[in-house]
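Issue: copy button drops trailing tokens. Both records pasted manually instead:
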Amino acid sequence: MARHHYRCPLRWADMDAFGHVNNVVFLRYLEEARIDFMFRLAPGEGSESFTGGSVVARHEIDYKLPLVHRHEPVLIESWVTRIGAASLTIRYEVKDEATEDAPETVYVRAETVVVPYNLAAGRPRRITAEERRFLQEYLDEPEAASKAASKAVSASAAASSSGSGSATGSLAA
């Protein structure tokens, strides 16, 4: 699975009274990364993919650490976690990559549900075959991995309950 990388500059105006990037500003950062991903990297010269408009149906953001102003841009890594008939989910990490001197630092984890939209008709539209092919290159399906893990735990529990011994285990979230 490929991931899209966008280097987002920090602006002095992004800071709030507490000296870190304001929580609302992170939505703008995610928007910049999403637009860069969907429009600049859309397939083919002259392609109509992703140009008809889209709307955000949902945002979810987990703030992990404060991000303070500096001259180096922050990395926003994004990928697709779900492709439906008329919506997709993009997941993000806003972070600094690991270096020899410091481990990776994640400031925000987020996801956005995007709905392609037909502006002329004023209604949502389906994802085209060309858009689906493009999005699948960035698809990481955590639901499939989660379901497989649940099946393995269920099978293990069933096997241990049919035996004479007991078993304990835990799953990390």
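Record 2 (pasted manually too):
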Amino acid sequence: MNYHSSITASQVYKSTFAAESTQQSFSTAVGQPIEVSYSAEQQTQLAYFLRLLKKANSENRWIMFIGYDALIDKSLLKNAGIDINKVLLLKTPAHQSKHNLMVKALEMGNCSAVIVAGEIEQFDTPLINSAATNGKAMAFVLNKNTTDHLTVH
């Protein structure tokens, strides 16, 4: 059963700021994983992702990165206007899948955004969709096409 086609950070950002009510549009981003695919040469999606994180950061909740591979450089977060005191890193235990950790983090409702690295197909599941909706949180799946140091211009 095909639930959703993948949506990107730029699509969510554009729909958020095109809508009249930001609260209504923020809920558009909740309910399915948002793909953020970028490389050193193509950073547009990363820029949209950081803008969405800044919006999520305005809530009185955490932004959680699951695993070191999902973590974004601290200076990028600061430069994007994100309060790093509201950012958490969850180390991934060997016996836990990132998918299950993401479901739990989203369901708790303590995070406005939960970020994991991987392929969107692994995380675009009914469990994550439901957890994101119930927790009123955005779920991001980062697909870094390179390990080069990234900067936002």
